[in-house]
Design goal:
There is one protein chain. This protein is α/β, with parallel strands linked by helices. It folds into two domains: 160 residues, Rossmann fold, CATH 3.40.50; 175 residues, Rossmann fold. 34% of the residues lie in helices and 17% in strands. The protein has 13 helices and 15 strands. The chain has an eight-stranded mixed beta sheet with strand order 3-2-1-4-5-6-14-15, sandwiched between helices. Strand 8, helix 7 and strand 9 form a beta-alpha-beta unit. Helix 1 runs parallel beside helix 2 and helix 5 runs parallel beside helix 6. It comes from Nostoc cycadae WK-1. Pfam families: AlaDh_PNT_C (PF01262), AlaDh_PNT_N (PF05222). It is an enzyme of class 1 (oxidoreductase). Pathway: Amino-acid degradation; L-alanine degradation via dehydrogenase pathway; NH(3) and pyruvate from L-alanine: step 1/1.
């Protein structure tokens, strides 16, 4: 099969769909891989690395896109819609619940669009292609939050770890899944006071075994959210509802009651966000101030650490890419987990969660 790897076009997105080591595996399986020139530079992979692995370097995006299987990292931007075509398999993060325009175009063009974030398997690691980036985003959320709490960055000048004689900063995390857990690990390590709120009592019990008394664990309801958010120096949105738009847990009126200069980092922004006042930003312009609070809403946070994140992503996606390359669309019949990743196929929305978001687009 011919596989295309275009260079990412999202603002400062330096990850790449296939690393040279992944290309080598696919090449050894008899496939032809076409990598757009400099697609891997930001992650530390040169064109020479890809050539050594068996890829062909192509100069233009359309040449990389014009393949049976296209492997990316982030969703196609409007400038890339022209490359989507019927009979093509697109394998990437899509997050369609927050992108009606892309959803409509995928329906129109007939591309088989498989989303990393909805590939689902049984067992504890049920979202195998979302998990590695959730781990990274969770850890980065505290790292970025700590930076923007600095006065020079617009924050209130709080050191999360505090110092002897001065209390530490307070980190409130909405959601105790992978993102929330990883954020808490970093926040605890920095010496902050940490609260996690979640609606899953079993998950809270697990988190107690993990953190013990170092983290305050609360059942998530409106009263607990209101009290916690008002006191937060750093609020992290870590809510995930598979395939659906994130629910708004923090309304504008509550944001108004936060301390001036406090920081919100909403990792759920790629699914619409869980804070009413937060909208998507970019690595170039990551924050804005609204209601006196610093808002950070970069939807591709792991793109800030591409050397780490590109390899972590490839470690998880490669087995599925190999299966798609070897079997084509028949891989969906062989692998039920991969089949659950299909969002749009044959001009129709097929994923139930996306159908619920866009019922008027369901034929």
């Amino acid at each position: 099969m011919e596989i295309g790897v275009p260079k990412e076009t999202k603002d400062q997105e330096f990850r790449v769909g296939l690393s040279p080591s992944s290309v080598r595996v696919l090449h050894e399986n008899g496939h032809k891989i076409f990598v757009q020139t400099q697609a891997g530079n930001g992650a530390g992979f040169t064109d020479a690395d890809y050539i050594s692995a068996g890829a062909e370097i192509v100069s233009s995006a359309d040449t990389a896109w014009n393949r049976e299987l296209v492997v990316k990292v982030k969703e196609p931007l409007s400038s890339e819609y022209k490359f989507l075509q019927k009979g093509q398999i697109l394998f990437t993060y899509l997050h369609l619940a927050a992108d009606r325009k892309l959803t409509e175009h995928l329906i129109d063009c007939g591309t088989c669009a498989i989303a990393y974030e909805t590939v689902e398997q049984p067992g504890p690691n049920r979202l195998p292609l979302l998990t590695p980036m959730s781990v990274i985003a969770g850890r980065l959320s505290v790292q970025f939050g700590a930076r923007f709490l600095e006065r020079q960055q617009g924050g209130r000048g709080v050191l999360l770890g505090g110092v002897p004689g001065v209390k530490p900063g307070k980190v409130v995390i909405l959601g105790g899944g992978v993102v929330g857990t990883e954020a808490a690990k970093i926040a605890v390590g920095m010496g902050a006071t940490v609260q996690i709120l979640d609606v899953n009592v079993e998950r809270l019990s697990y988190l107690e075994t993990l953190f013990g008394s170092r983290v305050e664990l609360l059942y998530s309801n409106s009263a607990h959210i209101e009290t916690a958010v008002k006191e937060a120096d750093l609020l992290i949105g870590a809510v995930l509802v598979l395939g659906r738009r994130a629910p708004i847990l923090v309304p504008r009126e509550l944001v108004k009651q936060m301390q001036p200069g406090s920081v919100i980092v909403d990792v759920a922004v790629d699914q619409g966000g869980c804070v009413e006042t937060l909208h998507a930003t970019s690595h170039t312009n990551p924050v804005y101030i609204e209601e006196g609070v610093v808002h950070y809403g970069v939807p591709n946070m792991p793109g800030a650490v591409p050397w780490t994140s590109a390899q972590a992503l490839n470690n998880s996606t490669l087995p599925y890419v190999v299966q798609l390359a070897n079997l084509g669309i028949k891989a969906l019949d062989v692998n039920p987990s991969l089949a659950k990743g299909v969002n749009v196929q044959n001009h129709r929305i097929v994923h139930p969660a996306v159908q619920e978001v866009f019922p008027d687009l369901v034929s």
